[in-house]
């Protein structure tokens, strides 16, 4: 990756440690594999589609420095995509253009949930300010989810209101729990209440389950491949079975990686309470079948195959699925093509997933 020093030498500007350089073109380019020649909009059913990736990452180096860290503290130098989290704007826009992505909704995976109040507040304030600066500099290409100090819920409420009302961010990115405490814990309810009142979207991205490390040891990167989807599934099931979604029925939750195993386990959730009602008797009486709540949640499209995307849409409805890539990590180098190449989807379905749903849900 070109160094920050090299860009500064050529007169680049900097926004909070995210290197800003001119991108050349006045609008997004369109990669050939996205269905149109470079410079032309993607057309479906005779209408232009603005593609919006709701699952894209970045890091703010100055925020990491507050904890004595750099990006390599979180992602090894050998890990493709790790260092690219430090956004060089020209490189990021070029990569987005190659994917056929017009806009990314940026998020930062929580690494501060065990930090004391003052330090966490400083990290979050810096990140949210710099994300807002980036989005203001290129509103045609970037939006963002705020960071929150969820371990201090009263502070998180203030941070969320400021981020949405003052900074124009679209909601907040959260992990799968807060230092192992599930999101259904009443201490977090004020945060969910504030998100519902603001119409803000919560983007759940897992961060790891260290208590499972012994089981995930060995070959195959199981901590991520199995652990991340499992962490997301558990988080969502707590939201459902502990009555959080009944208490906050307009709460908008979108989950990374297709929601983990939740969409495929909806019927099993229903049968579990039927087969063993005692296991469901200690919690609140739900207003709907457990599986019905799945259809009010949102999911990204990062499920890798046309068959998997077809099954996700069949389970939750096309209105609940949005484009996701995990960029800059190379999980989906061609996320737009993945949707376009899913034959079971109509052009209207594809347009919804590629951008229409995100524009509606996030207010873009």
Explain what this protein looks like in three dimensions.
Residues 52-364 form the Amidohydrolase-related domain. The protein has 364 residues and is an alpha/beta fold. The chain has one domain (43-362): TIM Barrel, CATH 3.20.20.140. Helices cover 40% and strands 12% of the residues. The chain has 16 helices and twelve strands. It has helices at residues 4-9, 61-65, 71-74, 89-99, 117-137, 153-166, 189-198, 213-216, 222-225, 227-241, 244-247, 266-275, 290-294, 306-316, 335-340, 347-362; strands at 13-15, 18-20, 42-44, 47-49, 52-57, 103-107, 142-144, 171-174, 201-204, 252-255, 298-300, 321-322. The longest helix is centred in the middle third of the chain and has 21 residues, at 117-137. The protein is globular and about 55 Å long. The two termini are 31 Å apart. The relative contact order is 0.13. Residues 1-14 and 19-35 have low confidence and may be disordered.
Summarize the structure.
With 364 residues, the protein is of the alpha/beta class. The protein has helices spanning 4-9, 61-65, 71-74, 89-99, 117-137, 153-166, 189-198, 213-216, 222-225, 227-241, 244-247, 266-275, 290-294, 306-316, 335-340, 347-362, and strands spanning 13-15, 18-20, 42-44, 47-49, 52-57, 103-107, 142-144, 171-174, 201-204, 252-255, 298-300, 321-322. Strand 11, helix 14 and strand 12 form a beta-alpha-beta unit.
């Amino acid at each position: 990756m070109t160094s920050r020093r090299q860009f500064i030498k050529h007169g680049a500007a900097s926004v909070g440690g995210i290197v800003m350089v001119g991108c050349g073109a006045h609008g997004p380019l369109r990669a050939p594999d996205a269905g149109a020649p470079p410079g032309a909009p993607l057309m479906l059913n005779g209408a232009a589609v603005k593609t919006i990736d709701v699952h894209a990452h970045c890091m703010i180096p100055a925020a990491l420095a507050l904890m004595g860290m750099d990006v390599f503290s979180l992602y090894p130098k050998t890990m493709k995509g790790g260092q690219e989290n430090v956004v060089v704007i020209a490189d990021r826009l070029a990569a987005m253009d190659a994917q056929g992505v017009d806009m990314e909704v940026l998020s930062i995976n929580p690494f501060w949930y065990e930090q004391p109040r003052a330090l966490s507040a400083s990290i979050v304030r810096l990140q949210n300010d710099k994300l807002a600066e980036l989005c203001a500099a290129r509103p045609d290409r970037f939006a963002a989810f705020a960071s929150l100090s969820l371990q201090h819920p009263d502070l998180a409420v203030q941070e969320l209101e400021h981020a949405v009302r003052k900074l124009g961010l679209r909601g907040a990115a959260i992990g799968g729990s807060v230092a192992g405490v599930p999101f259904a814990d009443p201490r977090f309810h004020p945060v969910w209440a504030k998100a519902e009142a603001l119409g803000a979207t919560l983007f759940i991205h897992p961060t790891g389950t260290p208590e499972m490390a012994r089981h995930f040891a060995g070959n195959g990167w199981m901590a991520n491949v199995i652990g991340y989807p499992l962490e997301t599934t558990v988080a969502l099931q707590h939201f459902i079975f502990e009555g959080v979604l009944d208490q906050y029925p307009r709460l908008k939750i979108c989950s990374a990686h297709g929601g983990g195993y939740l969409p495929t386990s909806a019927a099993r959730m229903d049968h579990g309470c039927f087969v063993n009602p005692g296991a469901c008797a200690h919690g609140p009486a739900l207003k709907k079948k457990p599986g019905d709540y799945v259809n009010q949640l949102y999911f990204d499209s990062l499920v890798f195959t046309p068959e998997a995307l077809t099954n996700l849409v069949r389970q939750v409805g096309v209105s609940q699925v949005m484009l996701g890539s995990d960029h800059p990590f190379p999980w989906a180098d061609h996320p737009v093509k993945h949707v376009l190449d899913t034959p079971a989807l109509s052009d209207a379905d594809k347009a919804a997933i590629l951008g229409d749903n995100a524009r509606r849900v996030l207010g873009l």
